Predict the structure.
Amino acid sequence: MAKGPKDQAVSERLPVARVAVDISLAHLDRPFDYLVPASLDQAAAPGCRVRVRFAGQLVDGYLLDRTQTSEHQGRLARLERVISPEPVLTPEIFALARSVADRYAGTLADVLRLAIPPRHATAEREAPAPPDAPAPPDAPASPDAVPSPDAVPSPDAVPSPDAVPSPDAVPSPDPAPPRPGSGPWARYPAGPAFLAALAEGRPVRAAWSALPGPEWPAEIAVAAATTAAAGRGVVIVVPDARDLARVDAALTAVNLGRRPGQPGHVCLTADLGPAERYRRWLTVLRGVVRVVAGTRAAMFAPVCQLGLVVLWDDGDDLHAEPRAPYPNAREVLALRAHQAQAAALIGGFARTAELTQLVAAGWAKPLVGRPEALRHLAPRVRAAPDEAELARDAAAMTARLPSLALRTARTALAVDAGPVLVQVPRRGYLAAIACGRCRAQARCAVCGGPLQVGGSNEVPGCHWCGALAADWTCSRCGSGRLRALVTGAARTAEELGRAFPGVPVRTSGGQHVLAEVPAEPALVIATPGAEPVAVGGYAAALLLDGWALLGRPSLRAGEETLRRWLNAAALVRPAGSVVVLAEASLPAVQALVRWDPVGFSERELAERAELGFPPAVRMAAVTGSSAAIAEFVGSAGLPDRAEVLGPVPAEPDGAEHDREPRERALIRIPRTDGLALARALHAAQAARSARKDGGGPKAVRVQLDPAEVA
DNA sequence: TACAGAGTAAAA
DNA sequence: TTTACTCTGTAG
């Protein structure tokens, strides 16, 4: 009898392996049992990557658990091989990924693809071992970093960081572990108490309204250092690489009780390349490093004994994952903090309605600056209402840039001798065009989409369907003349430069983003999110994009506009000047003038509650062909309190315009029934995928908490 | 009407 | 890749 893997002996000890296969079909989103061949007994540890035969195919999967017996009635197949004994799926991350999948009506496989980077064999071989192996006597051991094959933790068990008695949790051996004082946190009434809670390992959760200025990375670093000094791990998530560089520098500056030759923290970004990315990720998994800072994907970093999660600027749309099941970093980190009993520090200069919702629900407490500190630090903001209209007009911009704005810039450059930040609309908004006579927005004759100029084309084209509008005439007044509705950044730079001859003009945005500008007088033209930091702060800022932002037909237009304004204004030095070109009576303008993001957000949330909009309610979007939506929604068995809105034609987003017309239905439900809704939608997906009408024209996309809802 | 062999769908 | 089930053509 030849012994192929087929009939080789099965492991005597815990012969059954529960495996999550890496297939993102809803009806296969559950564990499957396999037999462990005796030869793989050692390697087949919970959390490791395996390869199994599934429906004839060899597929990748994760070994969740080892058990004595199986519930499965039929015959069990065997593990084909263990790809690596590295236990990459920890119980904590498994539980988190499962919750995220459930929350977003997605599959575990999809979430794990976001959470666990692809393996890189060389990196795995070379990465440093956990600190307890070569045992420098003073190395803090991390008993939970590498589960021994004997300990078979149930993946369902909620990991409790304190369950593991850590023998050396007492002293950090270094003579002077950084004993951070309150430092910048002294500027917040609740700051010292917040740090004290971190030091004691209590799961405090703060909705943070950062004081304007450049201190926020240092504040994050102090919170991280305090947590690390208490022997717990930290996850810090920021929107982009520039913010990460700032946090990285601040973490380096606080020197997180590191031992010689070992970093106290590690940065995780998407652009590291597979090897480096996996190498750094492994140092986290193995407990070598306990403080992680990174962009979105770092929210899943397998930090040991998590004590604190930090999310900076939670309203930034970069925190929304564009891949299924479209989780948002705020929701994931909140969930994670909750499950791990870790503290949370979420916020920024602005305040999102979602975070205000978390405060209203009692989940988080506000952490705001002292009023006198705010008064001292906030810039003086003035609105230039009657001149807003002028900003629409490129010609007027040249000739008569609003006098208040010009005067402010002139004073800042000449008297204060500092740089002036000019925030202009992003490229996306730049190119909308209007009738040259009556100013009606120019629309496509074919599909009604907005026309735009730009790219290589001199001829305007449709933003939706791409049709060129060479012989356009205005449908309202019949004029054939077009004009730019918005002035682009380059154009603004040129024109402002002319208004201030001799003053250097720097631009930041698109491909060329500046991180920092020197303290000398200069005009710094930037699009929202690309504003450089100025050494010593800007002397003034001109916010020219207000009407373009506020005019968007979006539920979040006001909140998003205020967020971008605050982020720009926070870069201005204390008592510097800000001029915003917008109607002074608008709530967003008021909130900027008074630097009151919390009040604005509370009103915003109240309004949305009244209108039945998120986050006061939970929404799901179902997108697909008309027939597919009808079938899907009809058969989904939605919870009683679910309310279906639409479907209405979905705006074609770029590449999808040549397919069957797609529609979108929204499903609204009270927040308390959110999980039930997700469950029903997931079940409906399962029914569909089991019938195999998955990918084709009958496909529907389910998205919970869609970003744009109106 | 019964049954072999091909074809097809599942999914441990 | 394997298995179990369905379909279909042909013999009885």
